[in-house]
Amino acid sequence: MADTINALSNETIPWWRNRRVIPLLVQAVVALVVLIMIAFLLGNLVRNLTAAGLLLSWRWLNQPAGFDISETVLPFNAGLPYWRALLAGLVNTIRAVLVGLVGATVLGTLAGMASFSRNGLLRGIARVYVELIRNIPLLLQLVFWYFVVFLSLPNGTAAIQLPGLVLAKSGLYLAGFADGLRWVGPQLVNDVWQAPLRLSVEFGALLTGLIVYSGAFIAEVVRGGVAAVPKGQWEAAASLGISWITTLRTIVLPQALRVIVPGLNTQYISLAKNSSLAVAVGYTDLYSVAETTLNQTGRAVEVYLLLLSAYLVLDLFISVLMNGVNHLVQIKER
Q1: Residues near 225 by Cβ (< 8 Å), separated by ≥ 6?
Q2: Which CATH architecture describes the domain 82-135+201-329?
Q3: Pick from 89, 112, 81, 157: nearest CA to 260
Q4: CA 220, CA 176: separation in Å to the nearest integer?
Q5: Which pairing describes strands 182-184 and 197-199: parallel, antiparallel, or unpaired?
Q6: Where are the domains of the chain?
Q7: CA distances from 300 to 55, 164, 167, 183 (A)
Q8: What SS3 class is residue 189?
């Protein structure tokens, strides 16, 4: 009976007044307009590139790069093709992003938790750190860490020596395994430091800047998530004699994750994009290698398409991963 009434009502209503038809027509028109604009822009781009003799081509990727990369995990030399250089730069970017995400998460979590400490000095330090770092551009912070801090480190015997770690102007030297399973620490040989693992000051400055900067924003995300947990949770734990740190770690933080994780997603994506500022401190990441490639080949459109695609895929991967984590921490209603 209801279907019959709906059918009769639909027959009597003109299509231009049908609430089901109009939204579909509007969407179809908008989609058509967008497709026409995209086709026009692409056609205009192809015509201009053809007129300039710069029609899209990818053959240059197999040509020898002709330049070296000062620091890379992936072995590379000037005789290898451009695609290998871009891949080496991408690996450098991924390395900086991964280590930066871990460091910023640890620092931000500690700073966010310190905002609820019973120690007034610790709370004050956490708030000063967050407010100071968040209001200084990342580029200025990277320049500060590189030129003022890392390039001011001493060399030779005057270098800062810690157990298993040496900080010098020539780099950061870390102990590790060498020649099989033999543990070897940093050693000074002919006034030059040597160690199984060496990080350049450029990488150290970039990493420090990303961790300190992103950690301040993550601290606010953590603070907001912890503040969203009902105060009664704290009071109940205190009545049971549970310590503050145990309450925060085992009771409050697990509940706060459903608020924290979506905010972390945004900060992680921002950190990945901010890693492109590595060029300011001389670290050879993907953007730096792409700039050198562009200057040598003149293939601006192709190079920037590769750059856009690489950062887009990296950010989408982070977003998908964090959305999965967010799904896991959400409270399941029965």
Answers
A1: 112, 256, 257, 258, 259, 260, 263
A2: Orthogonal Bundle (1.10)
A3: 112
A4: 35
A5: unpaired
A6: 2-50, 82-135+201-329
A7: 11, 45, 39, 47
A8: strand
CA distance 194 to 148: 24
Q: Where are the alpha helices (DSSP H) in the chain?
A: 2-12, 21-51, 82-114, 120-134, 138-143, 201-227, 231-239, 244-247, 253-274, 286-297, 300-329
Residue with tokens 């007034």: 120
Give the pLDDT score at 7: 53
CA distance 334 to 328: 15
CA 4 and chain centroid, separation: 57
Element (H, E) at 173: strand 171-174
Contacts of residue 51, defined as CB under 8 A and 6 or more positions apart, other chains included, come to none
**Cβ neighbours of residue 97 under 8 Å, at least 6 residues apart?**
271, 272, 275, 314
Residues 6+ away with beta carbon under 8 Å from 36? none
SS3 309: helix
CA geometry: angle at 162 spanning 161 and 164, to 5°?
A: 110
| pLDDT band, very low/low/confident/very high, at 177 (cuts 50, 70, 90) | confident
What pLDDT does residue 191 have?
81
Strand partners, 198: 173
Q: What is the spatial distance between Cα 150 and Cα 188, in angstroms, rounded to a whole number? A: 19
Render pLDDT for 161-170 as a digit per residue (tens, 0 to 9). Answer: 888 888 888 8
What's the mean pLDDT in 110-128?
89
Instruction: Supply 57's token pair.
Output: 């081509």
Q: Which residue has the higher pLDDT, 71 or 135?
A: 135
DSSP 10-78: HHHS-GGG-TTHHHHHHHHHHHHHHHHHHHHHHHHHHHHHHHTT-----GGGGSB-----SS-SS---T
Token pair for residue 186?
């940093």
